[in-house]
Amino acid sequence: MLGAGEEGELVLTTLSKQAMPMIRYRTRDITAILPGACPCGRSLRRMKRISRRSDDMLIIRGVNVFPSQIEEVLTNIPGVEPHYQIVVSREGHLDVLEVQVEVSPGIFSDTVRDLEQLEHRIAGELRTALSVSAKLKLVEPKTIARSEGKAKRVLDLRKEE
User: Fold this and answer.
1) pLDDT > 90 fraction of the chain, expressed in percent and rounded
2) Can you identify the CATH homologous superfamily of domain 57-160?
3) Which positions ≥6 away from 24 have C-beta within 8 Å?
């Protein structure tokens, strides 16, 4: 049991039914209980917005990497579309993280120098946020496959090797 404000996995448990088995449902969502009372006057416990999922975590060279960290970096950079793909592979005994990022049509048609500057900026911000370097590949708009429902963002090729 964590204290107020500490992040952990949300687990739902039936407590009020008698003659029922105690069932715990692991959601794999990472969140926290907010301290203090609600400004609206309700006295129930409040939950922080779900920040990420525990099962989305990748381990790259001993560092825990969440796709939500990558998404947060990319959404704060102008000229980048919200579509990206994370490809994890293994070269020798080392894990390699590659992030393929769609750029907006206006940026992609600019000069090579502008694309290189954007690539260096994204790579630097990813390195700062993740504490591990990632290969970065800028791709044309509408290059990354779209899917119905939940987007398939991570392609882990290590399992196939």
Assistant:
1) 16
2) ANL, C-terminal domain (3.30.300.30)
3) 11, 12, 13
Nearest to 45 by CA among 54, 53, 56, 36: 36
Which tens digits make up the pLDDT trace of 119-141? Answer: 999 999 999 999 998 999 988 88
| Tokens, residue 34 | 């907010």
Cβ-Cβ contacts under 8 Å for 139 (sequence gap 6 or more) = 100, 101, 102, 103
* Rounded Cα distance, 146 and 160, in Å: 23
Pair 63, 49: CB distance under 8 Å:
no
- The whole-model pTM stands at 0.64
Joined together, the tokens standing for residue 107 give: 């940026």
Domain ranges of the chain: 8-53, 57-160
Instruction: Answer for the pair 62, 94: CB distance below 8 angstroms, yes or no.
Output: no
**Dist CA 11 CA 5 (whole Å):** 16
